[in-house]
Amino acid sequence: MISRVLIANRGEIALRIIRACHELDIEAVVVFSEADRGETYLEYADEAICIGPAEAAKSYLNIPAIMSAAEIADVDAIHPGYGFLAENQHFAEVCRDCGIVFIGPPVEAMQMLGDKIEARKIAEKAKVPVVPGSEGAIDSEAEALKLAEEIGYPVLVKAASGGGGRGMRVVHNDMSFRSAFSAARQEAEAAFGDGNVYLEKFILEPRHVEVQVMADSFGNALHFYERDCTIQRRHQKMVEESPCPVLDEKTREKLCSAAIRIIKQANYENAATVEFLLDKDKNFYFIEANARIQVEHPVTEMVTGYDLIKWQLKVAGGHKLDIKQKNIKHRGVAIECRINAEDPENNFSPCPGKIEQYVVPGGPGVRVDSHMCQGSVISPNYDSMICKLIVHNTDRAEAINTMKRALKEFIISPIKTTIPACLDILSHNLYVKNKVDTSFVERQLY
Amino acid sequence: MAEKDSDLRKIEELIELMKKNDLAEIEISHGEDKYHLKRSQPTPQVVHQMPFAGGVPAADAGHVHKVQSAGTTEEADHNLIDITAPIVGTFYAQPSPDAEPFVDAGSHIEPDSVVCIIEAMKVMNEIKAETTGTIAEICVSSGEAVEYGQVLFRVKPD
Predict the structure, then answer these.
(1) Number of folded domains in chain A?
(2) With a CB-CB cutoff of 8 Å, which residues 128-147 of chain B face chain A?
(3) Is B25 exposed, middle or buried (0-12, 13-18, 19+ CB in 10 A)?
(4) In this predicted model, what pLDDT tens digit does every residue of A209-259 receive, in sequence order?
(5) How far off is chain B from A62, nearest CA to CA, in Å?
(6) What is the pTM of this model?
(7) For residue B40, what pLDDT band results from cuts at 50, 70 and 90?
(8) Do B89 and B64 share a structural domain?
(9) A173 and A215 in one domain?
(10) Domain check: are B42 and B97 in the same one?
(11) Whether B72 and B97 share a structural domain
(12) Chain A within 8 Å of B32 (Cβ-Cβ)?
């Protein structure tokens, strides 16, 4: 069993992990950069060690500094949180080589799921549907056309070296395919210096649904149902909820079993999230797996009643996942809003600064995961998250009601926050009626 | 002469009081009498005494000593430069267990002078002074864990 953990992260997730450690009588050591010196949440840790200056590269991403801190603090294990080094294979290797337990998957499992092409292959081996597409780059137009017909229109012609939503063209039929294909190759060549393109089925009006899974070192794997993360802006999640409001029990069962098959195929251990796209006909397609705990894990904790961080610590310490799948139930509806220091009226530009007044909401069904308090400073060096506001109630209408109340109660000043944007989303007819897809926020609101 | 005796006795009492309570400075006013004692290593010196009306000034009046005690007063801190840890790890004052320390209090240092070692992950990192002056204070001891930014030495610049 683990007795002393170093938390290689900051902010709300660091505090979350400190709390789980303390409930398990594990000592929590937290690292911090000069930018986070004096933050209140550090006082909750048993020990806090400054490891570097503000820049993440010299502090929270600085492997030697973190390992040095782990050494002087004499810890058994390191929890990487999310972001930073959480999915860094080299870091996981270094921990292993130093005899320190990495609270996450084994290096090989992280490698397999971290590589998108490898992950797709694992999904296919596990007989999980993936977004249909070409195996690799396509050279000839004739081959491309044939494949497009096989996949079924509409298709996406994607630049192999593209990214950030660039170098993609949607094609709806044979007639426009030729010109679209050659134009895409030319654009790719000009923009990325690599004219290679490949094909993927273009999923219409997708919902983004992910499954929370956990596996131990004894071959046991469990799921904790799904979360719907369709409410996004520029690929950043804003609102998450569980259960997915449009899933029937049969599809839910298939989805969650598929996630477990992938995890087992990869010999995975500890927490992971398997992500899918759900099309309007309720077909799901694997897109990727995240080999870490996620920001929105509290949503799952509220509907299932299990503390996922504590389970991460227990599993890493060699504890068996002694829960029966049939005993994991989901109850009611939970919704999470991410509250960031950003100005919705100004293209969500970050608003770093000092919080002069901070009053959190409360009452039944309200949970606030936050490291902030009055006097906290939002640093421009890291992400702009202030907190996560999570609510839980008996059904979706009640949960939306509670969330709106809680958002209105929340006082954060003088900095601008995304609270008004969250209220707009929660009040929008399409959101309430479940007629949203991943383009909703950008098309309807911002 | 009686007054002078009682002055001396008072001063001696004050000196004892300061020693007993480890005070660096004491100032007492009593009517028109005023005693101001400032302590430097190793014995307290009388800095200033107001003579009572019409009296003869005490023999020691007028000495002003610069305080150089271990429990530094605010004046001493203003001029010192801190050498801080550039990495987190274990501090070692000497290159190897049996060797002499790199520096002592009073050692003169140049920017390239090695002042200590910080061990991180079995790598012995030599830490350079990056300043010119004299070591005024050594703030950590060998074998102690230090964090990034922790003050290791205080240096009196040239």
Answers:
(1) 3
(2) 145, 147
(3) middle
(4) 999 999 999 999 999 999 999 999 988 899 999 999 999 999 999 999 999
(5) 11
(6) 0.82
(7) low
(8) no
(9) no
(10) no
(11) no
(12) no
Question: What confidence tens digit (pLDDT) does each residue in A349-371 have?
Answer: 999 999 999 999 999 999 999 99
The reply to whether A47 touches chain B by the CB within 8 Å rule is no
Query: Rounded to a whole number, what is the distance in Å from the CA of A68 to chain B's nearest CA?
Result: 5
If asked whether residues B122 and B142 sit together in one domain, one would say yes
- In this structure, are A211 and A197 located in the same domain? no
Show the domain range for A55.
4-103
How large is the angle between the packed helices A116-125 and A107-114, nearest 10 degrees?
Answer: 100
- What CATH number is associated with residue B125? 2.40.50.100
Cβ <8 Å between B121 and A51: no
Smallest Cα–Cα separation from A382: which of A357, A356, A350, A413? A350
A49 touches chain B (CB under 8 A): yes
Q: Are residues A19 and A57 in the same domain?
A: yes
Residues A243 and A189 in one domain: no
Q: How many domains does chain B have?
A: 2
pLDDT tens, position by position, A390-437: 999 999 999 999 999 999 999 999 999 999 999 999 999 999 999 999
Question: Which of A34, A65, A98 is closest, CB to CB, to B88?
Answer: A65
Of the listed A185, A227, A233, A292, which one is catalytic?
A292
Q: Is residue A112 part of a domain?
A: no
Mean pLDDT of A111-120: 84
Chains A–B, number of C-beta pairs less than 8 Å apart: 43
CB pair distance less than 8 Å for A51 and B148: yes
Query: A96 an active-site residue?
Result: no
- Find the domain containing B83 and state its range: 79-157
Minimal CA separation from B114 to chain A, in Å = 21
**Same structural domain, A439 and A376:** yes
Whether A120 is in a domain gets the answer no
Facing residue for A65 by CB, picked from B90, B145, B148: B148
CATH number, domain with residue A167: 3.30.1490.20
Answer whether B89 sits within 8 Å of A72, measured CB to CB: yes
Q: Which residues 8-37 of A are in CB contact (within 8 Å) with B?
A: 34
